[in-house]
Each structure stands twice: as structure tokens, then as C-alpha cells.
Amino acid sequence: MSYTYEYPRAALTVDCIVFGLDEDELKVLLIQRGIEPFEGRWALPGGFVQVDESVDTAARRELREETGVTDVFLEQLYTFGAVDRDPRERVVSVAYYALVNLSDHRIQADTDARNAAWFSVYDIPELAFDHARILEMAHERLRGKIRYQPIGFELLPPKFTLTRLQRLYEQILDTKLDKRNFRKKILKMELLEALDEVETDVAHRAAQLYRFNADAYNEKIRTGFNFEL
Amino acid sequence: MSYTYEYPRAALTVDCIVFGLDEDELKVLLIQRGIEPFEGRWALPGGFVQVDESVDTAARRELREETGVTDVFLEQLYTFGAVDRDPRERVVSVAYYALVNLSDHRIQADTDARNAAWFSVYDIPELAFDHARILEMAHERLRGKIRYQPIGFELLPPKFTLTRLQRLYEQILDTKLDKRNFRKKILKMELLEALDEVETDVAHRAAQLYRFNADAYNEKIRTGFNFEL
Asked: Can you spell out the DSSP letters for B95-160?
């Protein structure tokens, strides 16, 4: 006896939002579509889920195939299930997002993608499908997360200046923060260790370097905080 | 030209976790399955997504059909996409959760459900499929949410005592809270309005009634807080 569901079914896809920080900007990884529909248009990396792979696996596979990016922690964001979001047919998409240190990841376009590149989240070309909305929701999740949990371990190099950390907050929150106030709040959280080192190869006066205290960082992920602007 | 995805596809379902608070306990709405697989076993209300309805609509429809519950705000929780989570075939399920004031919702079993009933989240029968895990994740989400945002508007009657509000926190967090400390923290948030009324029909000394200040409540949803235990 079979209990199979014998009706027409939606196709299932995954889409990946990979955020990276370069020196100054919050960026997102996009691919240029090599096939119809939306051929030539930029889009989030992603594709169809195979019937014999988990949805999580499909997300990692598509990201690797389309951009060459591997070894990132993809967290599920949301499932987009509107009826008409894809011109081909009924397609439901599970979106995932990740934070990476941009310089760690060499990207290369592959398979269905003509091209892969990082774009500033504040200067995005017109995207295929409902990907602009998916990207907006991912950015919103990031803005929410930064208020409750420490963020930056994945985005920053191991040692960084307070200016760079502030720039990360400003980029995610899309707002200018007061330097003195930011430093006071961040240092009060006791997440950071001041190092006995300053930055090198800079034209201006070299600033002190910090790193995250891993124990304090993980504890704050557990207990949370409220970072009030 | 067609761009249809011509490979075998997963079936897509929805599952609903509806939390309700009765006088003393956090409860969840379950249905007893009337069909195989897991016939007779308790499960989360849910079912297959039709190809011409959105996933959100499917969740509301299945909840209504299987339990009679309508007019609740279902928020998407997570999509469960492991390969072997359903013995029938490949099924991916999008889970939704909601908070309701239990006394507002008369439940009635319908269609594929033999029975529908509220169970204490701390006394759940063996569930069908991976529903125990889905329920656990929903409870975890609720525990996380209560730390960052006000909760209770949907779960409590319009006027309530501080004891009842404390009981809500204790039920969600599964821990005993110190009465004095809880009151101090909650009142400091300025979410509540003390009413010029006390509870009626009680054997013990009647306690003062409170209600949420809607403006303050909505503001706290926006700005968040950190409710440290």
C-alpha cells in the first residue's frame, strides 16, 4: 500500500544570501544567470533541490557549484511560498544566509552561472525573481541579530581595530554611530580583548588591535544582550 | 519553450504549532491521525500544500480543517528538509507557529483528524513523524523570543494579575522565577498599566489586575530588550 501524494506539486529550490565584509562595505555574493528565465540578470546563487538530498545539502551544493564558495555555515532564513514568485511554474524556495570574511573566499562562476561577484548591499543591480525581497529579509535578519547577539567573528579578520568593528555595525545598520558612544558600549560588553599590538602599514596613526574573547562571545550568543542605538 | 524542472520532486507539507495558555499551563494543539501512516498517533495539525495555494494559505487551511481553529497569526518557524523524515516518500515540511488565548478557540476535529485536543507541552504523547523535534524547536523559539520581546498579548486575557504573567514566563521557560525579582523587572519595563481593579471570584485575597500598554508593547517589539533571568 502506498500513501504517496498523487497531485501536482511545486518544485523546490534553495537560494543563498552570503554576506561578506571587505575593508569598508557590507557585500553580498551574486551570480549572473546564464540561462532563461532572467538570462543575464543578477540573482542569488541557488537552484533546484534534488529528491534524494536534504534541503540543507542542496543549499551547500548550489552555492559551491555556482560560486565556488565552500565551508560556510548556512543558516536557514525563510521559505518563500507565494504562488506566482517564479514565471516558470510553481516554485517554493528555502532561503539560507551566511556571514563570511570576504577575503577568505575566492569566488568563481560555474555551471548555470555566467559570472559571480560581490556587490555592496547598498548598490544592488535589478535582481531576478523575488530575490530583491529575499535579500532585504536577510539584511533585516542581520540587523535584528546584531542587536541581540555578538556578530563579527565570521565577518572580521582575527585582529581588528575598533574603527573597523564600528564600520561593520554601521554597514549592517545603515546608520552612522557616534564613535565615543559606540566604543563605550562595545567595551562594556566585555567581548573584546585589547591586544598589545597596533595595526601596520597605515598612513594615519596606527590604532590598537582587538580580538574577540571566544568564551565571552559564545556566552553572549547564549544569553544575548540588547544593543541599544 | 518551457523551463519546467523535469525531475522527481519532493512533496510539500505544512505543520502548525499552536501554543495556548490556560489558567496554569502552556499547551499545544494536537490532532490524532485518522489515516496511515501513524494512524491513531498524535501529531501536529498539517497536511499537503496544493500547487495553486501559497504555503501560508495552506497552513491556515490545514489548521482550520483539522482543528476548527481560525483567525490566528501563524508565523513561519522553519522548514524541515531531511531526506528520510516521512516514511511515505520524500516530504519537505514548512512549520508555522502561533500563540493564542486558549479560551478563545473552540476546537473540533475534522477531515483527516480523528480528534483534536490541547496537551501540556510538558506532557506530550509520542508524536508521529519528526513532530517531537518540530515542537521542540517551536518551544525553543518561544523561549528565545520571550527574552527579547514582550510576549503575552495573544496568550493572556485583556486583564491579568502579575502572578498569571509570571506563570506564563515560568511555563515558557520551564523554570521557577523569584516573585519579587520578576515583579521588579517586569514593572521596570513599563509595559504594564496597573488597573483600579482586582480579580473577582477568588478564594484568596484578590490581586490587582494589570493590562498591557499597547503603545509601550509595540515599541518594545520594535526596540527589543534583554530579559535576563
From this structure: EEEEEEEGGG------TTEEEEEEEETTSPPPBSTTHHHHHHHHHHHHHHHHHHS---TTTS-SSB
